Amino acid sequence: MAATPTSSQVVTVTVNGTAYEREVPARRLLVHFLRDDLDLTGTHIGCDTGSCGACTVYLDGVAVKSCAVLAVQADGAQVATVEGLSDDELTPLQQSFSDHHALQCGYCTPGMLMSAAALLAENPSPSEEEVKVGLQGNICRCTGYWNIVEAVVAAGKGSA
Amino acid sequence: MTTVESEATTTLQKGFVGQNVPRREDKRLLQGEGLYFDDVKRHGMGYVHFLRSPYAHARITSIDVTAALEQPGVYGTLTGDEVAILTDPFFQIAAEPGGNVRDYALAVGKVRYLGEPVVAVVADTRERARDAAELVEVDYEPLDVVVDARKALEHGAPVLHEECGGNVSYSGVWEWGDVDKAFAEADHVVKISELHFDRFNSTPLENNGALVEYNRGTGQWTITTNNQFPGFAAIMMAPALRVGTDKLRLVTQDIGGAFGNKITTHPQLVACCLLARKLKRAVQWTEWRTEFHQSMSHCNERWFLDTEVAVMADGTMTAFRSKALDDTGAYLRYEPLGGVIWSQVAAGMYGWRNLRLEFTQVMTNKAPCSPNRGYSRMQHLWFTERIIDIIAHELGFDRVELRKRNYVQPEQMPYETPNGCVYDSGDYPKALDVVLDLIGYDTVEERRKEVASRGKLLGFGIGSTLDSGTNNFGQSQLVNPELQFSGNNEVATVKLDFFGEIVVTLGTTPQGQSHETAASQVVADILGCDVDNVQVRAGHDSYWNSHAGFSGTYASQFAVTGLGAVKGATEELASQMKTLTSMVFQCSADDIELVDGFARMKGNPEAALPFMALGAIPNMNNAGFPIDPPPMNARYVYRPPFDVPDKERKFGNLTLTYAMQIHACVVEVDPETGVYEIVDYVAVDDCGVRVNPRIVEGQVMGATALAIGAAMFEVFAYDDDGNLLTPNFYDYHVPHTLDMPPLKTGAIETPSPFTPLGTKGMGEGGGGGIHCVNAALQDALQASPGRAIVTTSHNPYHRVWEMLNHPERFREKVEVISK
Predict the structure, then answer these.
(1) H/E segment holding residue B26
(2) How do residues B232-274 score in pLDDT, each as one tens digit?
């Protein structure tokens, strides 16, 4: 630990399996680090109070709002973003979103997918109510949520 | 959870139009590979932070940027003084007095709402730009604040724009038929002293912003942004910057929702243009959520005062008169078009012929208003639905029967309204029957008893609404006769590329409305190919020369204007393809058909050319033809058939199509707390031919969710000092998954006789959810002592508590005079 406070720090963050070493201002948010420093622009920013969930990523396997985490807090950690969910083909969850018209503008979608995938990892066949509870931290303004909930429930039933 | 019951009457085309073709936008968006403006970077770009006014009304006495400029990493600043020298004030739509407003890219001399941008600071990182902005010293001399539109009209009220002599931006009297006679003959006059449509907006999840670059050699700016009406932006920005419109290249790809709230960003875009030129580097501006709430695009807040309704003994409504007082916030921008646009639906869905509205728009020390989903029609349709609901409860009419009696009837379509608008088609009674069936209307009274046995009040409400689409911009002349805007347009190009690939460009700026998918369906049906073979370029770019003055995505028109342009361009291309094929086969073009990806001779399928051959000939292999082979490239401008309205009578067709939605819901109210929840909800829409029914349903669902939010949770509330009390998502509650009721949707299709495909634009919806949730609440309160009526669009639980415990405050607003 540094004896004197510093305003910037070199961090090593592994994102979607790739390690990145960068110098960052101590105050930089993880979401800005991902988007601006690493060009991983799939994670979005929708608010400034940690309320909307558009910035949801996994930090050492736990779903977090990356606008409420500092980049320096991710030093040495594994981060997963929407870009890491699939290679070229869509995952069953992503395909279910498309099949159920669960996205329109797509802006909330990365956060929704990350929250939904985390939910399904923990609860592979959630009920409609469980999905609604699990996604209550993700705001969408386009769809009204009905198709999103349907898509996640359907993806749950389909998974092995 | 959701069911779709379709009663499609006709679909005009076989093939892809009418099918739920999967969205081609989905793959990139699901993989996080969408391209929103903030995803785009330029080496060395500066980040813009706006220092904003902490006062709702104040003179700026001095600005000192010295300390900010000294900070490491700061590239420069911009103040109002510079803006006033380098630009001309923005063009004003209003005539006098509103036309005297001087509106610039930054505050000049004065601030007029909390959050108004005063100084722009640019630095090498977002964090440093914010830090440096805190070091800018601005001295203000606070002025008295006015936040109530009624007070803004009073003599002696604080005046925002001295050049206007007062706070009125526009006022006019709109009257048709014989209103006085209708009232003299009425059996009942129902008076409602006060109704108020509350201030909110659609808070798209992505905020506004832009990446702006300046080419010093050519004087051209490239603006990568999420502005949804590039035609309007260019018309506003170019004269201000003193350049031709082609010097502003506007580029969008993916936009994270807009709902009308991304039309009036031209002041910030001009500030960025000046900065890019001044600082000789690209500049990047991303609005914060709080900034958006404080400063951007609130929906028109509107009072309806001293309303009177003439009703006959059998429930026929014959006339209304009212005074609309529209609170438009501190600047006009797209206003006062709201002062005429409501008249597209002046009569609502009802057949009354005698209407009078005195419309006054005032400016107040609040965020500027501009279009919000349902723009200006929603407020007026809410007004008509409140009226019919209040009349029903006060005079003892059944709300279903009263609507059916007063609805414009299907046999009257196309129907000319008292002010010359033409409702193209529709069957409102049938749609209402579908709604009643889906919600189980015949079980409502039984449910009411069951709910009462649990100590709660059940309410059932209907909200019927119109979504008028494809504006005639000639209506702008009804608020300012000097304006030179009229009609409407949209542009598309379709070509066969070098190797025969089908490439489409649009002038529109989709924000989730699936334009690429819908366009590909129309093209595939005309060219006789597979929908996957049609490449539609994502987004908008003025470099494509695929746009005109009204290009953009707003006002419920893509299915008419955008797809009309696509259809026109594709039919032109199809004709070129047949002509070229006929040149090759030495036959008549009439002998050629386009089927299965080939241009072939009718009755002789062996004589066929693949699209690859057709694309290659004019591009790479054009020798040997006695006359020019057609270029395989078509550009089409769709123009809807409009005349300029009659300015004297305020009469004429203002909009081409009228989609319709009828919503109904069941609520349960806790009489002890006022807390209520929606337990059942149905929405039925009619937008004519549905190109992609699932996409249409998605729009209906989105409109429903926004309306529920506005009715129950969302409001932009101000204190008397002009502080916004709901400046971000902490206090402004956007509904989440658990706030949504169970939903059933249904659809009928009455094709429009006026449009190229029989479609009607439908994206806005018309606020049906606000109307029906209000109606259900009022119905529940009928069982409470005092029987309060609902007089505001936004009714959080504490207002409901007030209605339960102080009903006299609401009942005193309604009076019935009967013969």
Answers:
(1) helix B26-30
(2) 999 999 999 999 999 999 999 999 999 999 999 999 999 999 9
Distance, CA of B141 to chain centre: 37
What is the Cα–Cα distance from B716 to B199, expressed in whole angstroms? 5
In chain B, residues with a C-beta closer than 8 Å to the C-beta of A42 are: 31-34
- The whole-angstrom separation of Cα B224 and Cα B116 is 23
Residues counted in chain A: 160
Q: What is the pLDDT of residues A56-78, one digit of tens each?
A: 999 999 999 999 999 999 999 99
* Complex ipTM more than 0.90, yes or no: yes
Cα–chain-centroid distance for residue B630? 39
CB A24 within 8 A of CB A11: yes
What are the chain B neighbours of A137 within 8 Å (beta carbons)?
Answer: 736
For B794-806, give one letter per residue: b (16+ CB within 10 A) or e.
bbbbebbbebbee
| Residues of chain B found within 8 Å of residue A133, distances taken between Cβ atoms | 737-738
Cβ–Cβ under 8 Å, residues B701 and B741: no
Q: Average per-residue pLDDT in chain B?
A: 96
Which two three-digit tokens encode residue B576? Answer: 């070129």
Q: Which residue has the tokens 């030129």?
A: B277
Q: How far is CA B814 from CA A103, B195, B317, B393, B798, in A?
A: 44, 10, 17, 11, 21
Of A32, A136, A142, which is closest to B257 when you measure between CB atoms?
A142
Question: Residue B444, SS3?
Answer: helix
Q: Does B734 sit within 8 Å of A139, measured CB to CB? A: yes
Mutating which of A15, A47, A55 best tests the B interface, going by the most B Cβ atoms within 10 A?
Answer: A47
Task: State the nearest Cα–Cα gap between B657 and chain A, in angstroms.
Answer: 23
pTM for the model stands at 0.97
CA–CA separation, B252 vs A151, rounded Å?
Answer: 29
Determine, for residues A101 and B254 on separate chains, whether the beta-carbon distance falls below 8 Å: no
Beta carbons of A139 and B205 less than 8 Å apart: yes
Percent helix, percent strand, percent coil in chain B, to nearest 5 = 30, 25, 40
Strands A78-80 and A8-15, sheet pairing:
parallel
DSSP annotation of B513: S
Of B1, B31, B702, the CB nearest to A83: B31
Closest Cα in chain A, distance from residue B33 (Å): 6
Q: How far apart are CA B585 and CA B603, in angstroms?
A: 14
Interior CA angle at B733 toward B730 and B737, to 5°?
115
In whole angstroms, give the CA distance from residue B392 to residue B315. Answer: 8
Buried b (16+ CB within 10 A) or exposed e, B181-214: ebbeebebbbebebbbbbbbbbbbbbbbbbbbbb
Q: Report the alpha-carbon angle B539-B540-B542, nearest 5.
A: 165
Residues in chain B: 819
Task: Cite the DSSP H helix spans in B714-812.
Answer: 768-781, 797-805, 808-811
Token readout for B606 is: 């062996």
Asked whether the predicted pLDDT for residue B10 surpasses 50, the reply is: no
Tell me the C-alpha distance between B336 and B375, whole Å: 12
Cβ–Cβ gap A90/B30 under 8 Å: yes
DSSP string, B115-138: T-EEEEEEESSHHHHHHHHHH-EE
What residue in B sits closest to A131 (Cα-Cα)? B737
Is there a contact between B728 and A48 if contact means CB atoms under 8 Å apart?
yes
State the Cα–Cα distance between residues B460 and A99, nearest whole angstrom.
Answer: 33
pLDDT at B301 over 50: yes
Cis peptide before B89 (omega within 30 of 0): no
